[in-house]
Amino acid sequence: MNQARHLSLALGACAAVLLAAGCQKDVASPSGRTITAGIKPGGGCANFRLTGGGRVDKLEPETGKSPPSSHDFATFGFQARPESGCPSTNAGSGNIEWNEHLDQPFIQGGGFAFHGRVTFFSIPDDGTQSNPQCGRFGGTGRFNPRNGANQDNVPFEVKHACDVAEPGVQKDHIHIVIGPFADGSTYFRHSLLTGGNIQWHRLTGNN
Amino acid sequence: MTTKILVALTLLAGAVQAQTVTGKAFGTYVNAAGVTSQSPVATLPSTGGMATGQADAFGVAGAVDAQALNAVTTGVADNKKSGAQSTSELEQVSAAGGAITADVVTAVATAYFGQFTGGSDGEGSGFANLIVNGETITTEVAPNTQVDLPGVGYAILNEQLQTGNGLTSYGITVNMIHVVLQNALGLTTGEIIIGSASSSVAR
Q1: Using an 8 Å Cβ cutoff, are A192 and A171 in contact?
Q2: What tens digit of pLDDT does each residue of A133-142 get?
Q3: Percentage of chain B with pLDDT > 90?
Q4: Residue B149: phi, psi to the nearest 5?
Q5: pLDDT number for residue B177
Q6: Do B52 and A77 touch (CB under 8 A)?
Q7: Does the structure's ipTM exceed the value 0.85?
Q8: Model pLDDT for residues B45-67, shown as the tens digit of each residue
Q9: Nearest C-alpha of chain B: how many angstroms from A160?
Q10: Is A134 left (phi over 0), alpha (psi -120 to 50) or beta?
């Protein structure tokens, strides 16, 4: 787990250099990869599911809440699971809601809401897979900026959502990438939870 | 000694017992002048999962005005660990005729059971650019902070109400702005709740 977190911290440090907050025009995802709607990324099959919700503020490796006046935080809720135990296709299902408050020009200002539908689910492939309680999922969804036109079928990928401890504040962490949007820009946020929780559950016969 | 053994046995038994979760979140609730109005409510299914309640805007003249209302609740219960986490967010909030305003109101309510321990909290709840009676509040608002609203009544900010018995059940309700409306005699005539999130777990 420590090794996984170190990689997370390294990615977070890169992100922090690129931008003071979680989004910037024309910035690729921290791993340098792009994501494409409908294409299942790599990663091993998963026999577990994840739920979570809460709040994230500063990008890793920083911790804690951002100053309220900065509006530099997001809240979220999700459920995600494989279609069946360890499917060879990594097909998944579920939903995610992501509400970003940061005021950035490239998203027309005032933040946005994103409503995503999960289509794939796997173990991560970004280094966090050494923690067996991390999962990865993604799909497409509707990007709903506060001040701008909606965009449909926008790809997203939760590169990892990790259940590290109970309670999860300052321990559980999540890394999401949304985009590219119509203008080619991409949003990401990679943070420890400042509120809420992420839980990992092994699939059983009934769930 | 006997008590400790009983507690340990209870916890061990609980670790393999079926657990239940509840979750609920909404943006605004108004009960004033004989009129009750509420924005969409997210209610977690008894089997767990996810629910949302959203509205672009919500207003009741003189009571509340808000935009971008987003309520989400998620949770899972199984026999080893369970959790429910609910969030409610609103933007450009004005309450009680403008006595309270905020750019963003965020309520987060979390309840969980690990294999042997549980708890609940309102971590992550807060305001952005909160103004009360014309005074800007720049610091974090402590749970259950009461402020007078002259001519209106009073408000409890970051209201946190713990539920559960602390052993086999845990829960919390967070109401970020709870305005109690009072008449000239000090009698309660209604209430306004803005930014409400509740979560609980039990085994």
Answers
A1: yes
A2: 999 999 999 9
A3: 83
A4: -125, 95
A5: 98
A6: yes
A7: yes
A8: 988 999 999 999 999 999 999 99
A9: 18
A10: beta
DSSP-assigned beta bridge partners for residue B100: B95, B132
Q: How far is B74 from chain A (nearest CA, A)?
A: 6
User: How many angstroms from the chain centroid is the CA of residue A80?
Assistant: 12
CB burial readout B180-193, b (16+ within 10 A) else e: bbbeeeeeeebbbb
Strand B126-128 and strand B118-121: the pairing is unpaired
Q: Is the pTM of this model over 0.95?
A: no
Q: Whole-angstrom Cα distance, residue A141 to residue A38?
A: 11
- The whole-number pLDDT of residue B38 equals 97
Spatial separation of the C-alpha atoms in residues A27 and A24, rounded to whole Å = 6
Which residue blocks in chain B are alpha helix, DSSP H? 2-16
Q: Which of B16, B85, B130 to mutate to test the interface with A (most CBs of A within 10 A)?
A: B85
Residues of chain B with pLDDT under 70: 1-18
Residue A10 has pLDDT above 70, yes or no: no
Average pLDDT over residues A33-40: 42
B57 forms bridges with which residues in the sheet?
Answer: B67
Residue A8: its H or E element: helix A2-18
The size of chain A, in residues, is 207
Q: Of B105, B84, B83, whose CA–CA distance to B94 is shortest?
A: B105
Residue closest to A173 by CA, chosen among A37, A55, A34: A55
